[in-house]
Amino acid sequence: MSILYEPPPTEYDLKFVLFDIPVRIHPLFWLFSILFGLRLGDVHAIVLWVCAVLISVLVHELGHSLMMQNFGQSSYIVLHTMGGMAVPTGSGWRRGRSSSVSTSNQQILISLAGPFAGFALAAIIMMVVRALGGDTALPLLFGFIPFPQAALPYPGRINLFIDFMLWTNVFWGLINLLPVYPLDGGQAIRQVFLQLDPWGGIRKSLWLSVIAGSAAAILGFVFLGSLWMALLFGILAIQSYQRL
Prior knowledge:
This protein is an alpha+beta fold and about 240 residues long. Helix content is about 55%, strand content about 15%.
């Protein structure tokens, strides 16, 4: 998911390489993750929350990058503010394939790879929970939506961390699949519209983004009591309208 433009590098960036993919974590990623978890109230819970967000967003972006890699496109990952982005880079040939992603179907697979990488991680966690004698339920977190929760016969903080991991991967994955640009679902649906209507596909996808974003903002605020969802989708709907 890439809601914002890539932030410029800073001397405080954390950099490393994972699966031959360069990763850069901007300081704002830590700041926003902490701010979003402050309502938890407990320092230990906030630390667990930030760790869960880090792992979940990284897995999400790795899904995009590894799918690009499968099509011969190199990339790097930047984690920042409210999420992250997998940025294609380079030219030439890799692994016998052209490094440029040229088909709509490839673009769709790349867009969907992020959310489904998170779903796969959540499924693995839930299977492990059940294998260890745990159970799952559907409580609420942060007043948003029901999400899978683990109940293991272990100390509470382990359960809490698993809860955070499941919530970030399930809830954020579903959010990313909404047909709102530039979320992953919005980028995938744009390619579908372009296949059906090469001349007017982008415009139709933007109108859908405006409608879906406005509806998500209203529903998020009225039914879920989430000002965060209202602001996020309100801004995305406005941006899509401006692009029209």
